[in-house]
Batch of 3 targets.
Target 1
Amino acid sequence: MTQASAALKPPRRRAAAPGWSVPKWAVLGAALVALSACATMSTQEKSAYAQAQQQVHRLEAEPLANQAAGKPLQQARDALANAGQAVKHGHAQDVMYWSYMATRRAQIGEARVSELRTRNQVADATAERARMQLDYQRQRTELAQTQAQQAQERAQNAEQALQQQKQQAQAQQTQQQLAQIRQQAQQQVQQAQQQAQQAQQQAQQSRQQAQQAEQQQRLAAQQAANQQQAAKQQLEALKAKQTSQGMVLTLSGSPLFATGSDTLEPGAVHSLQNVADLMQQHPMMKIRVEGFTDSRGSDRYNDALSMRRAQAVANALKSDGVDPSRLVAIGHGESLPVASNNSAAGRQQNRRVELLFSDTQGRFASAQSGQQLR
């Protein structure tokens, strides 16, 4: 959950307690009842409830959901059931609250599923790479051993040839020829022995190289894991939260922008300087800057204003030394509110900018709104 969502308190009317375990048939029943009450719901309430249904059903369809995100999945189901009851009874505020809670819990569950899937993929890829390297070194070792064996066989053949030549020389009683033959045979034996020794040395070197490659691979994997963990802890220190898209830092409230303005207030400078320092420590990390507005004003005006606000934050990060190629700005207008636009406090929470961080290798969990850094 972001800072904005943490400030959202549940409305007075509730369909059920947040911790209740609601059966799946109850969720489906609530959805059917909700269809009959849609005529009395506003567009925003319908959208929030439909989004919550889609998010929860998508998490339920994940094969790893029960293993990686059992608790968030059950919480998401409970919240969706409560939203369905609120739709049935026409409680607009409850619809928005429980739809938002169902969506957020499902997103947390998807993030945990994605994290488990990524860990499994990294482990599989690491094991496969190690296996291939070991197979390659094993083949080189076997080749060196074969060459050593062949050299030994040539030495034995040379020795046998020497014995045969001795017999022939003795039969012919040619001492001179026998000496020459002995000398040549000795040279051949020495060459064969040298070749065998070289082959053994190559086999030893191959084994050592295989051990070094395996050790370097383990070290590189550990360093990457340590770097990712350090980045996560730094982001958490900046109050960033884990979502299905990755770590998200939400900038909202009066210290960010004045009403209708795209000029950063002085109070936002310190937070952005901390973000710039983090980016300097992790030179491959990237950020997607996403701007949002409240519902006042036309869609066209809010879309343009949210884009200008996102660009203002991106420009501030560039001024603090962040490479522009590591930043992209996106405006969402008044879509995806985190609070009700019916109050000044809710509108202030919706006037925000969210910073979505990649991992330390510059990879995002998934694309959003068709935008992704390359």
Note: Strands lie at 241-243, 246-252, 287-291, 327-331, 352-357.
Target 2
Amino acid sequence: MGKHMIEIDEIIMKFLKEKAEPFVDSPNSVLHKLLFGTSVSNKEQQTFPHSYAKNAPKALSQILEVIEEVVKFDRSRPEATRIVADRNGTAPQTIIDKYCRQLGKTASEVDMLLREPGLEGFRAILINRFPSHSDVIATFFNGLNGWEDKMEHHIHNQVHYHGPSVRNTTTYGSSSDRKKRDTALESALKNALGERLKDKFGLFTLKGQSQLVFKGARVLCKFSSFRDDQSRWFWGVSKAYWENWEPTDYLALIMENQDHDGYSFVILNSNEAQFLFKACSDSAGEKKINMRIYADDNVLRFQEWKEFDVETRTQSLDLE
């Protein structure tokens, strides 16, 4: 049967991912189920069968399931943990024990591993922990990367935008790599933003990793690198912030430019931020903010608030 490439928007992409059965479905098989009520039995559909790790230890199998939920369906680690726990009829803490205590890692260290390009660090740790199942682990990670490639090629939704050109001191390998979080860089960017805002708000201090505190205002700063594979930026705002938003609070969304040569930011006042929070989806208490460039008119917009004039409000941010 011949195959054809189609173009869809981010909303449809997200819908297909939500309807896909973990370890089983491809984009094509999801559409078959939704449109015709039938399943497709072919090699593409069998990339991640549940029987795949049938003879592997339960700990390994459940860790792989968590990784797959995070990478394949773009879920947070806590959300993926709950899904895997429900699927296996156990408690989330039991799943956490598998990828934390049994691997000798903290939850934050696991989060860092999940952000590494190609997940090579996670692969090496699992092979070292389960050496007799290295073939299962290798095939899983190879297949996981292959599934992402298929989703991006079979459902083509790439868009293009050239952000402001600003000097950048960070270099990357492949432009589509999933980047490891650089907390030192983020801190430098937030301090640079504080210096930019001194004329408006006065002196400041950086509280924790996210808040610029001025005499009469607070600015919550969130950073996002650019995801080449999805042509988007993504920020998460925890419930502790958005649920206790004050009239003097601002939201600053700092972004790496699309060509990776600098940084920019958009700042929203209290009312604008609260409107955006209400429009965003809520996952485990975290508001997910998405920004992308739409292919039909090549305009940069919030996915959740398309009427907001992002391009006019975007400003460059220099690191001196």
Note: The first helix runs from residue 10 to 19.
Target 3
Amino acid sequence: MIGKELWKGNWVSVIDCGTDYECLHEKDIALVIPIIDKEIFVIREEYCPPYFAKENSPRLYFTVLSGKIEDNETWEDTMLREVKEEAGIVVDPMGYTTMILFENKPICKSTDMRGTFVILEAHKYSREKPQGDGTENEKLSRSLFCHKDMISWFLGQDNIDMLLIFGLNKLKELKQW
């Protein structure tokens, strides 16, 4: 990390970037839209406090499955862990393909977080009850298993974040979708 740490919380730190600009320091992230059975995509209806910090914002947002990349993980490890935690999809390590939408790219200009965003097509998987990560935010959220015909409906919603808009538009571009 470059810059002086001004404040440290459980999830982020505020750092002085050496200019007149403060920024957030966060772990990098893996983002994923899983596809199962060739026609079903999985997204989150998520309780995401930063999204509703402003007045009159919805309490639940449609977004992608995501998670912080831990020190001992690759983005692929994180992707598989999050798909299991958030959606209960246990993907066979030899039974999936991914399409990388972007790899190790900045997410937003107010944070140093970088993300890798993929569409994961699970060919071999099993299902279990999602366990979540134990946080209250995750307990208030849920994964939605959606038929590909619902993409346009989601894109018309106000409570959708830019990551999901980007991902769903990429899915629409695919010929089989």
Note: The chain has a mean pLDDT of 94.
